[in-house]
Structure formats: C-alpha cells, structure tokens
Design brief:
about 260 residues, alpha+beta, 5-stranded mixed beta sheet, two-stranded antiparallel ribbon, 5 helices, disordered C terminus
C-alpha cells in the first residue's frame, strides 16, 4: 500500500511537471508571437506609407522617388531578416532533437563566414583573425553553425566599435572543443550581460529598433550552441570588447588537437 501511494504521488508530481512545461512553452510561443507582431508593425506601416505616397504622386521627381523606394527597400529587408531569424528559432523550439548532425570541420565553418563577410563588406576595415586549426571536427549542422557564426560577426561589426574580431580554440576535453569568439571593442555594461541572449533584448533601451537589429541574433547563437549539446557564456574582456566562450561536441572522427 505504501509503495503504491508513493508511486501515485510520484506520478502526480511528474504529471504536474509536464503541465507546467507545456504551459511555459505555450507562454513562450505567445510572447514570441506578440513580439514578432510588434516588431513587424512599424516597418509594415512605413513601407505602406512610402508606397502610398509613390502611387498618389505619379509626377514625383526622380530623386524623391528613388529616396522613397530605397527607404521602403530598407524596411522590407528588415522584415525579411526578422522572418528568417524567427524561422530559425521556431526550428529550435519545435524540433531541436531532429536537427541532422554530422562530423564538420569547424575551421571550414569559420572560413565560410569569413569569405561571406569579405564579399558583403560587412566588416569594413575590421581585421578578422581565425586561429582554429584545420581538422577541428565537431558534431553539428553546417548551415546552423554558419548562421550562428554569421550572427556573432554581424553583432561585433555593427555594435562593438572595435577594429578586430576573431575566433580561437582555447581548450578541449575528452568529448568537446572549447572556443572563444572575441572583439576588441567597447563591450557592454555589466548589468546587460545576463540579458544578451534574451529574445528581442536591446542593450540601449533608448535606441530605435533599427539600431538593435532584429533582437534575435544572439538568442540564435545561444540556441544553436545548446541544441548542439554545448554551453555558451559571455563576458567583458579585460582588454576591451566582448568574449563569447562556447563548447561544441567532438565529431566521431575527431582527433586530439594541440593548442
């Protein structure tokens, strides 16, 4: 009788825990929907205003017409980035355990993003330093890791105010590699560090949302690392700038790499 009573109590405890987890997931989805609706409202209204003005003024001079079209394009690009980021986060929320993984050379991930940044001119005159050795094999999804690293470099290029960014392998355990992504910019105030991975968080609450991007870049970085079974943290460097320290599981064909 006592064993049965204990089993019933344990079953009820697990049932309540499941209910709480489902409620939290539903609350998260509602917050996400509300935030996305809020973030889309402004650019949609702006684009509508520009297009209405163009339609209602067919005799507008060419310079003004081009100005309105460029402004509309900027806001459409902003909405496109937001939708893309939301799609990635939904992928993590709904089926992170189903993400296909394979052995990947993380050096190739960094090189891919470095090449894309050179083509796009995102980094301007910032120096990019990649000291991850070839043959640093991690278990991962190539497209998601590229997206993660692109978000790190974009965040540093737009907001750090530094002249150099880089990634390096700093340690390894039996099962994982540990990396650092850094910049030599201004860093952020210490009170902001715990919130940097929160969705739609903006360091400067006085900024326009445009200057904060979609507010989903660093949350994507966090969710990518955790969905790969790793951990990530962020801190201010004593020499200036931010340091993101993260781990990724070794791939099956990984071999020990001297640091």
């Amino acid at each position: 009788f006592n064993e049965r009573a204990k089993a019933m109590i344990e079953s009820e405890r697990e049932h309540q825990a499941t209910i709480r987890a489902m409620e939290e997931q539903n609350n998260m989805k509602r917050r996400m929907t509300n935030n996305v609706s809020h973030e889309l409202k402004t650019p949609v209204c702006i684009v509508k205003g520009y297009i209405d003005t163009l339609v209602e003024n067919p005799d507008m001079d060419e310079a003004s017409r081009l100005h309105f079209m460029k402004k509309a394009q900027e806001n459409i690009n902003r909405m496109t980035e937001l939708i893309k980021d939301v799609s990635i986060l939904n992928r993590f929320d709904e089926a992170s355990e189903k993400i296909p993984m394979e052995p990947i050379d993380f050096h190739d991930v960094v090189m891919t993003v470095e090449d894309e940044n050179e083509e796009s001119g995102l980094l301007n005159d910032m120096k990019f330093v990649n000291t991850v050795p070839e043959g640093t094999i991690v278990e991962g999804n190539f497209s998601l890791l590229v997206a993660m690293f692109h978000n790190l470099t974009k965040n540093a290029a737009l907001y750090s105010g530094g002249t150099e960014i880089g990634v390096r392998l700093i340690d390894e355990t039996k099962d994982s590699f540990i990396f650092e992504f850094y910049d030599n910019g201004n860093g952020v105030a210490e009170e902001h560090l715990p919130q940097l991975f929160e969705r739609f968080y903006c360091v400067d609450s006085g900024r326009a949302r445009k200057s904060c991007g979609t507010g989903l870049g660093l949350p994507i970085v966090h969710d990518t690392v955790t969905s790969h079974g790793g951990d990530i943290s962020v801190s201010n460097s004593p020499n200036g700038g931010l340091v993101f320290k993260f781990s990724l599981n070794k791939g099956d064909i990984a071999t020990s790499t001297e640091i």
